[in-house]
């Protein structure tokens, strides 16, 4: 196909050159543009099988992203004042929904005062990440809202707060941050 395009461009160029409608420089410029265009189309065509696979993968990702959430992220209170920083765990019980028989936290109590720096340290699987996920309401505790137990931010049960608001108030740096070997300017 590429050779046909080259031959056709030379033929048309020769006819127009003979009729003195264009110059030699224009013929070579058009020939070069056609050659580069044909190469680009040829290279792009080699990616068509990968495009089909990528499209199928994108559909799967979109179906996950569009999946309805079990928790309404914008329902709940949106307090007018920012979070001051007091976090309380009162007799917290939690098991992941797909492993209800394995209690990750049972009767967990702890208070973090505003301005305190806290490091969660322990063996793999002891509940460090779970504690952060409960604070940010990626999961809800097994405790009832009215029992006086659960996770509290500034004295308010997180189950009564909108997850969207909570996540705007708290920043988390996980144990494997991605660091880049470049400056902010770059």
Automatic annotation (TrEMBL):
Entry's Gene Ontology cellular component terms: membrane
GO MF: ATP binding; ATP hydrolysis activity; ATPase-coupled transmembrane transporter activity
InterPro entries: ABC1_TM_sf, ABC_transporter-like_ATP-bd, P-loop_NTPase, Type_1_exporter
UniProt feature coiled coil, ranges: none
Compartments reported by the entry: Membrane
Domain ABC transporter stretches: 105-181
Superkingdom of the organism of origin: Eukaryota
Signal peptide: none
Chief site of localization: membrane
Membrane-related topology note: Multi-pass membrane protein
UniProt keyword list: Membrane, Transmembrane, Transmembrane helix
Name this polypeptide is given: ABC transporter domain-containing protein
Higher taxonomy: Eukaryota, Metazoa, Spiralia, Lophotrochozoa, Platyhelminthes
């Amino acid at each position: 196909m590429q050779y046909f395009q080259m031959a056709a461009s030379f033929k048309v160029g020769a006819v127009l050159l003979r009729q003195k409608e264009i110059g030699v420089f224009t013929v070579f410029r058009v020939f070069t543009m056609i050659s580069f265009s044909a190469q680009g189309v040829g290279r792009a065509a080699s990616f068509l099988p990968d495009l089909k696979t990528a499209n199928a993968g994108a559909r799967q990702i979109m179906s996950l992203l569009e999946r309805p959430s079990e928790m309404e992220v914008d329902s709940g209170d949106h307090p007018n004042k920012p979070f001051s920083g007091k976090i309380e765990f009162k007799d917290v019980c939690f098991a992941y929904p797909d492993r209800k028989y394995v209690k990750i936290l049972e009767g967990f109590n702890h208070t973090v005062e505003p301005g305190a720096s806290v490091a969660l340290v322990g063996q793999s699987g002891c509940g460090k990440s779970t504690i952060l996920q409960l604070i940010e309401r990626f999961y809800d505790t097994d405790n009832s809202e009215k029992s006086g137990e659960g996770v509290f931010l500034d004295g308010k049960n997180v189950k009564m707060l909108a997850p969207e608001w909570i996540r705007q108030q708290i920043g988390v740096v996980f144990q494997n941050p991605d660091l880049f070997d470049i400056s902010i300017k770059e």
